[in-house]
Amino acid sequence: MSTKNSELATIFHEMAVMLEVLKDNPYRAKAYYKAAKSIEKLESDICSLAASGELEKIPGVGKSIAKHVDEWCREGTFDEYEKLKARFPAGIFEILNIPGLGPKKARVLYRELGISSIGELEYACMENRLVELKGFGVRTQEKILNHIEKIKVYSTMRRAPEAYRLAGEVEKLLRRYSDDVYLVGGLRRFQEVASDVDFLIHVSEPGSVLSHGHLEDFEDVRFVQEDRVLAKYEGFLVDIRISEKPVGVSQLFFFTGSKGHIEALRKIGSGLGITISSDGVFVDEHFVDITSEEEIYNLFGFSYIPPELRENLGEIEAARDRKLPELITDKDICGIFHIHTTYSDGSLTLDKVVQYAVEQGYQYVGISDHSQSAFYAGGLKEDDLKRQRDQIEVVRESYPQIDVYWGIESDILPDGSLDYSEEILGMFDFVIGSVHGSFRMSSEDMSARIVKALNNPYLTILGHPSGRLLLGREPYDVDMNRIIEVAAEKGKIIELNAHPYRLDLDWRWCRRAKELGVPVAINPDAHKAGDFNLHWGIMTARKGWLGREDVFNAKNREAMQRLMKAKPWMG
Ligand SMILES: [Zn+2]
Ligand SMILES: [Zn+2]
């Protein structure tokens, strides 16, 4: 059979699948399936038939399909196909590769839950969204998750929790060769997503110990240079620098980077007679015995720059002027907001959530279930709200050692309004406004939508402001600078969603929020017991220069009580 025939058959099949998922017109989908089949079976070359005007003799090829074939033979593609492809989310093809997920199921996922990529599908599975979905269930959900796990092994990028877990395992393996092992590179500076992990190790005879056979726990081991090995561990790229001498501070410093940071320092150093390389630190060509990274900065007269700030984004100037922030730590967090309970899609009861917050030593906790238009997540109807309000009173009495704030995560609808009346919004202590659907908007429209929400006096915190799912869904198009400016103007708080799939607000924007005095709330967005960990959010905040004074939930109990009473965000 001609390869042309099978190429075109594939295209028609793809069109049929796209039409079936989008469900514009079931007859057209059928027509394309049929055409694909008969072209595949065809003995003679499809474009020769097109040239001799014999296309319509082929079963399943009518006038309009014949036109497409003609166009394709001449141009290599055709308009109808290009148009369809342009409005079809490409990620759905990956979903269709999961065993058991045909166009019908993909259609349900897309239409009911707005899922158009593997990342979104994984996130929805983890939030238990498929269990109640027509044609799905617990077993299907589990199978899908298992399959996605497998796919991940083959891709090279890893989100922070996975990247740091793998780094920890690799470090353990390397410690069999030497105790002198250090994590360097991007992961030492904190990365929300990593493509590899870098290590520095001292081995006195690199050739003999780190030879091929000795690295049996790694895959694809390659010596790039005498002092450098590239290998894979569970599919994750590992870059190992080998030092024959014990690892020195200058090496640690040098391989931690970033390149831009080192370059900028070197430039300043050249005026002061300071040279830094992996071989050591020299002042006026004399070797200086350095015992800590602090000493390197001190040579310049600068304060110490922690690894997460070494991105050449103004940290050197700030260190020179002694204006580096004191970065937030786990211990600074006094309470948590943005927690879902069994009232919507969370798996913990309200009582359990409060109990848990008490056990963690928090001084306050803010409950926020989904609002009514989040039907896929069991959003709260007015009756549910009354029940929840009553129960909030009960837990407040049972747990006097903690303040319980009652909130809601209200959908920001496509027109920018929140999906409850002002009367209802006014009942809550705080309102988180989040975009959960209709992501595909121009930057202008999306920005106007969120700006309108920020103008709502009841909105307290803007939830996951870019909507991204790391390695799953790109952020929506939005003018983040303007969002932060309006938030500043209106006295709003911006969330740094600490879920490791989100880490949204991005650290690159945290500093802008800080500059404009917009408090950042590091929120767990917890749906179940394992979700309360703020670690990745705190790491993101640190990389974004945030200190205790910049973080909303680092305020102590009394300060939070005062704020909740004054409600400065109401304008
Ligand atoms: Zn949300
Ligand atoms: Zn949420």
Features:
571 residues, alpha/beta, DNA polymerase, domain 1, Beta Polymerase, domain 2, Beta Polymerase, domain 3, seven-stranded parallel sheet, five-stranded mixed sheet, binds zinc ion
Nutshell version of this structure?
The chain has 571 residues and is of the alpha/beta class.
Low-confidence stretches: none
Q: Specify the biggest β-sheet.
A: 7 strands, parallel
CATH superfamily of the largest domain: Metal-dependent hydrolases
Helix content: 40-55%
Q: What is the CATH top level name of the largest domain?
A: Alpha Beta
N/C terminus separation:
72 Å
Number of helices: 24
What is the number of independent domains? Answer: 4
Strand tally, please?
17
- The average pLDDT is 93
* Rg measurement, Å: 28 Å
CATH architecture of the largest domain: Alpha-Beta Barrel
Bound molecules: zinc ion
Q: State the secondary-structure class.
A: alpha/beta
* Share of β-strand residues: 5-15%
CATH fold naming of the largest domain: TIM Barrel
What form results from the Cα inertia axes? globular
Which strands sit side by side, in order, in the main sheet?
A: 11-12-13-14-15-16-17
